[in-house]
Amino acid sequence: MNTLYPAEPLNAKERYEYWQDVVCTTYGPTANKPLSDRAFDGSLEVKNVGAVTFSRIQSIPIEYNRERAGENCDQFFLTVTMCEETFVSQSGRDSKQTYGDIVLYDGSQPYSCAFPKGDDQIVLVVPRPLLLAHIPKANEFLSRTLSIASPLGRLANTMLMEAWNAPTLEPLVGEKLNGALLDVMSTAFETAFREPEPSVKRHQMVQLQRIKEYLLDNLHDSELTIDSVAQATFVAPRTVNRLFASEGTTAIRWLWTQRLVACHDALLAGRFSQVTEAAFSFGFTNLSHFSFAFKRAYGVTPQQLLPAH
């Protein structure tokens, strides 16, 4: 573990200027502003675990601001608060953390972090590809407080703290530890902030699936209409139209496509010796229309798929 600060004894102004250099080197460019009139004091310890940089940063009250995106910082910060209160803002979301809480933010995007009662936190600097490989929905969790009181918040906190306190590890062991830690973080964030699917939406999905299954079971029926399908599946005709519209299609268009697919697969498998027989078996009644649509969809005529060809 390396102690980057404090360094040799410096006067108050030099200490703060050196602090800014050290912080910007470790975490990326920020504009820093002390929130106290006291002489500046702080400490920063850093260690590398595989590709992740672990650090503990402590100081008098201070605020950090990253004002522009993309300034030499293609990484995420995953932090656990060790002080009384922290305020993080990013992507239009403001959050507050207290002791033990965890927060994630994107180092390549503008953000602000304020520590009005003093800074004390464990910070993981995680390369973007590594974090996104384990937390693919990271953007949904930026500047959201993973409370230590949440279902998996305490477990995530404990793992992060144990990783910080662990002795020096072999690179391969460190990478495995990072992966396990980030997987737990992903599960903890998803459990805490996953949006439950509305019951109405679930009901509509069940309705649509039931209608599709009925249509697939009755591809042969050339007499199918919206009214007959609605009656058979116990919904109103307008409900049938609305459900398929939510997928950007109509019931008749979807039915036509499924008939075309089924006919193509049957011809390809050699189940029919005549195109007419195949078309009628899947509910087509207009052979010229069927042949035209088939050629447009598959680039060959249905006759070309007959066994003789």
Task: Offer a concise description of the structure.
Keywords: Activator, DNA-binding, Transcription, Transcription regulation. The chain is of the alpha+beta class.
**What is the total tally of β strands?**
11
- Order of strands, main sheet, comes to 1-3-4-11-6-9
CATH class of the largest domain: Mainly Beta
Number of helices: 11
Task: Report the sheet-strand fraction.
Answer: 15-25%
Report helical residue fraction. Answer: 40-55%
Q: Summarize the main sheet.
A: 6 strands, antiparallel
The class by helix and strand makeup works out as alpha+beta
Keywords: Activator, DNA-binding, Transcription, Transcription regulation
InterPro entries: AraC-bd_2, AraC_XylS_family_regulators, Homeodomain-like_sf, HTH_AraC, Tscrpt_reg_AraC-type_HTH
Domain HTH araC/xylS-type: 209-308
GO molecular function, one term: sequence-specific DNA binding
